Amino acid sequence: MTFLRARAANRKNIPASGETEDIAARWAIRMEDGELDAREERALASWLAADPRHRGALIRARAIWSTLDRSRALHAPAHPSHVEGPATMRWHGRRDILGVAASAACAMLLAPSTSHGTVRFLRTGAEISAPFPLESGSVCLDCNSEALVAGRGMRMVFGRAWVQGGNGACVLSAGDVRLSLRTASLILSRTRDMTEALILAGTVNATMSGRGQAIALGPGSLLRQKGDSTPIVDLLSADDLARQTAWTRGMVEFQTETLGEATALFNRYNGRKLFVHGDALAARSLVGVFALHDPAAFARMAKQVLHADYVETPGRIDLY
Length: 320
What we know:
Blueprint: E1 2-4, H1 17-33, H2 38-50, H3 53-72, E2 87-91, E3 95-98, E4 119-123, E5 132-134, E6 137-141, E7 146-150, E8 153-165, E9 170-174, E10 177-181, E11 185-190, E12 194-201, E13 204-208, E14 211-217, E15 221-226, E16 232-235, H4 238-244, E17 251-254, H5 259-269, E18 273-276, H6 279-282, E19 288-291, H7 295-306, E20 310-313, E21 316-319
Domain FecR N-terminal: 24-63
Pfam family, one: DUF4880
GO molecular function: sigma factor antagonist activity
């Protein structure tokens, strides 16, 4: 079910950082539409003056949107629909998707209206999202991930996404990497200085910003680009591919990871946290495939294989 909720704001109620980014994105889209009128200029000036962080958010949003908008223009619909107003959308009641900003009718500090097609700023918390539809295909975000989607385009801001392309062309971007696909699927990842694209099915054409012709990537291809360096392409084995995609099935496979590293990954996906006591135990490894959302099963296996003791309480599991 989709929930629409207008967010009132004033100088005594500065939006939280996530909402600030949404509002900045909406301003960026409006500014792409053309010159602001006098009322909009006053509203933007008021919003920028309300918090020094707003100006930086707007700069980031304009950079992100300009990249995505260039990709969207290749496949823009003949009659774009109106951008929806402020919204908190829930995927099957589990996941918040913050709509891109708030309606200009709410208050001067909120973002303006615009005539661009529907845009969404997607953010996940500690759980993997259900599929979110694109005009051609769908996207599923891993936990703690952010993306901007519009029409058949998606800009990966941070984290990881599983994208399944439909019959129509789909254009993706992350960092300097641009990907075009049709009836293909891939996992796209973005951190502060690394972009990765793992092709699961079909053929994906990859280009780098300002760098020559496209590279055709087939199933099992893993493209990595660190910073602005030349990208590297590897071909994964079937076992490595299954391991890299385990999270899309709600699973995780550990091979060489220490217990400390494994519990850190579990804690990304669960409210009930795992804590390992003692450096010697944290340095040991537990090999196997586990359900991402069942830390208690992992603790039981640690006891069985590593002879570790554990204590369960409602909010945590302590391993000794």
